[in-house]
Specification:
Layout lengths: L2 H9 L9 E3 L5 E3 L4 H22 L3 H26 L3 H21 L12 H23 L1 H7 L10 H47 L1 H6 L1 H38 L3
Antiparallel strand pairs: 1-2
Length: 259
């Protein structure tokens, strides 16, 4: 078993269809061909849209069961995450954060399904989501405060004028650092579960190289530990969706309420 090859499968996105080039003018071109990550993200989007729409609009017994599962999560995002941070602005930003939470949760859980890619265990995907967070921070700040007031309030009040340019650069860098931390935290935590499970399974082959009998005795403990980590990854999927959503709300709320 090539541990390095399997790990690279999570970090490198390989195209699985013919090359489809989209020209972006002076920015160059992008290959839009289908890849495992894109396929999994599309499946996650379709699953989330279909499941949530069915639960919200259907009156069947299955829909009521699904509604009883999804509604507490939606109310938790609204009442326990957004309202304490955004106050009366919560309703405006609720659609984005509900979309963010359920998309992350679906992608996290799909990453545990065989033949699906660990979308949120890829740094480029989490980086793209962090860029969306950075853009939302700027949008919310300008929308709620106005452009000039937002730029002025990036630096805390009461700072001597001579230090204002330096602190402005530091605060902007800190804004980037917050989004980078979002990217790394989600990617690292989701990748860690896959790596640990794989490491336990690799123990079978490592010990089998020493002795086939020794490798056979490692099957039950290795598979048992891998299944335990796999079960914990289900909990981590919910936890990381909550953490990313909460921190995004916290960073955006700082732009909405600068004081």
């Amino acid at each position: 078993m090539n541990f390095e090859h399997i790990l690279a499968h999570h970090l490198v996105d390989h195209k699985t269809s013919h090359k489809i080039v989209a020209t972006l003018g002076p920015l160059g071109s992008v290959d839009m061909g289908l890849s495992p990550l894109l396929r999994t993200m599309w499946i996650a989007c379709v699953l989330a849209i279909v499941a949530l729409t069915f639960a919200a609009r259907s009156e069947s017994s299955l829909a009521r069961v699904m509604r009883s599962m999804f509604e507490p999560l939606a109310l938790f995002v609204r009442d326990d995450i957004l309202k304490p941070i955004f106050g009366h602005h919560a309703g405006f930003y609720l659609p984005y954060f509900l979309t963010l939470f359920f998309f992350l949760l679906t992608c996290n859980l799909l990453g545990l399904v065989p033949h699906m890619s660990g979308v949120t265990a890829n740094p480029w995907v989490t980086a793209g989501m962090a860029i969306c967070t950075f853009g939302l921070i700027q949008f919310a700040g300008v929308k709620e405060q106005g452009l000039v007031s937002y730029v002025v309030h990036i630096v805390p009040g009461g700072v001597p004028l001579i230090l204002w340019p330096l602190l402005f650069v530091i605060e902007v860098f800190g804004m980037f650092a917050k989004c980078i931390s979002l990217c790394i935290r989600l990617f690292a935590n989701m990748l860690a579960g896959h790596v640990v499970s794989l490491a336990f399974l690799c123990m079978i082959f490592i010990f089998a190289e020493m002795s086939k009998a020794f490798g056979t005795t490692m099957i039950i403990p290795s598979v048992g530990l891998a299944l335990f980590i796999y079960t914990m990854d289900v909990l981590v999927s919910f936890l990381q969706a909550y953490i990313f959503t909460f921190l995004t709300a916290l960073f955006v709320g700082g732009a909405v309420h600068p004081h």
